[in-house]
UniProtKB/TrEMBL annotation:
Matches recorded under InterPro entries: DUF8021
Signal peptide from the UniProt entry: 1-19
Protein name in UniProt: DUF8021 domain-containing protein
Keyword Transferase: no
Superkingdom, natural source: Eukaryota
Coiled coil, from the record: none
Transmembrane regions: none
Keyword presence, Zinc: no
Keyword line: Signal
Amino acid sequence: MKPPTLTLALLALTGTASSECSHAFLTNAAALYVAAQRDGQTASYASANITYTENDVPVNITSGILARPLKIDRATSYHDTTLCASFTELIITDPASPFVIATRTVHDQSNKTATTIHSIVSKPGDWAFNATGYIRWENLEGEWGIISPSKRDSRATIQAAGDAYFDHFNDTTVKVPWAAACARIEGGAYTDSHGYGNNTCDSAVPGGNVVRNRRYVVDEAHGVVSIFVGFPRLDGTAPDKAVPDSHLFRVEGGRIRYVHTVSACFTAGCGWVGDLPP
Ligand SMILES: *[C@@H]1O[C@H](CO)[C@@H](O)[C@H](O)[C@H]1NC(C)=O
Ligand SMILES: *[C@@H]1O[C@H](CO)[C@@H](O)[C@H](O)[C@H]1NC(C)=O
Ligand SMILES: *[C@@H]1O[C@H](CO)[C@@H](O)[C@H](O)[C@H]1NC(C)=O
Ligand SMILES: *[C@@H]1O[C@H](CO)[C@@H](O)[C@H](O)[C@H]1NC(C)=O
Ligand SMILES: *[C@@H]1O[C@H](CO)[C@@H](O)[C@H](O)[C@H]1NC(C)=O
Ligand SMILES: *[C@@H]1O[C@H](CO)[C@@H](O)[C@H](O)[C@H]1NC(C)=O
C-alpha cells in the first residue's frame, strides 16, 4: 500500500506547486530583481508598463533607479506565498552615491509576472541615513534565520505585532509586543550600537499620528513582516504628503525582536519634530 500512497502525495504536491505562488518562484524572481538592479537592466525583469513607484511617486521603470547599475553590497529578501509578494532590501555603500533601497514586489498569481513594484529609495539627507552603518549593524545582527515549525507564529500574529507598532503612534495606550530585548536599525543608526543585546526599541512617541497606507509582506518561516506605510509629517507641513517609509519587523514568539527602517524624506529630517527616535 505504501508506494501508491506516496505517489499520490507527490502528485498532490506537484499540482499545488504549479497552481500556487511557490517559494521557489519568489526566490527566483527576487534574484532576477537584484540582478536587474546590479546591471541597470529593467527589460529583463519587468514590462515597461508595470505599476512602479519610487517613494510613492509613479515613475516609468525604464527611467527609475532600477535602470541605473549599482554595486550592491548586501541584498536580503523575504517571501510571502499567500500574497505572491516579496520584500527585498538593498544596501549600496558606494561612498560617491550610497543608497538603501526597500522594495515590495507583487506578482500576478495566474501568470507569475510582477505587476506592482514599490521602492523606497533612501540616500544621504534622508532620516538617519547611513548606508555604512546599515550594513555594519546588519552584519552584527547576523541572518534572521528560519524559525523551526513548532515555534513559528501565525501569519495573523506576525502581522499584528507590526500593526501594533504603528497603531501606537496614534493611540499610545496600544500595547506593542516588545521582546525582552529589541534593537532597531533606523536609516543606518542603531539602538544597540554597543552590541549588548539588551536594548529596547520602545521610545516615547507623541500620539495622535495615524500611520496609513499599510502594505504588507509576511514571511512566516522567518517570523518577518514588512510594512510599507505613509508616515505622517509631525511638523504639520504638507499634511497630504506622508513620508514614504518601510519597516521590517522580526517577530519571535509573537514579540518584536528587531526592526529595520528605510524612509525617504521630502525635506531634511523628513519634517519630523519632537522626541521621535533615534
Ligand atoms: C504599454 O502600454 C501602451 C499603452 O497602453 C501600449 O501601447 C504598449 O504596447 C504597452 N507596452 C508593453 C510592452 O506592454
Ligand atoms: C516607459 O518608457 C518606455 C521607454 O521610453 C516606453 O516604451 C513606455 O511606453 C513607457 N511606459 C509608460 C507607462 O509610460
Ligand atoms: C498578467 O496578469 C496581469 C493581471 O491579470 C496582467 O495585468 C498582465 O498584463 C499579465 N502579464 C502577462 C505577461 O501576461
Ligand atoms: C555611519 O556609520 C558608520 C559605521 O557605524 C560610522 O563609522 C559613521 O561615523 C557613521 N556616519 C555618520 C555620519 O554618522
Ligand atoms: C486613533 O486613536 C484614537 C484614540 O486615541 C481612536 O479613537 C481612533 O480610532 C484611532 N484612529 C485610527 C485610525 O486608528
Ligand atoms: C545593557 O548592558 C550593558 C552592559 O552590561 C549595561 O551597561 C546597560 O545598562 C544595559 N542596558 C539596559 C537597557 O539594560
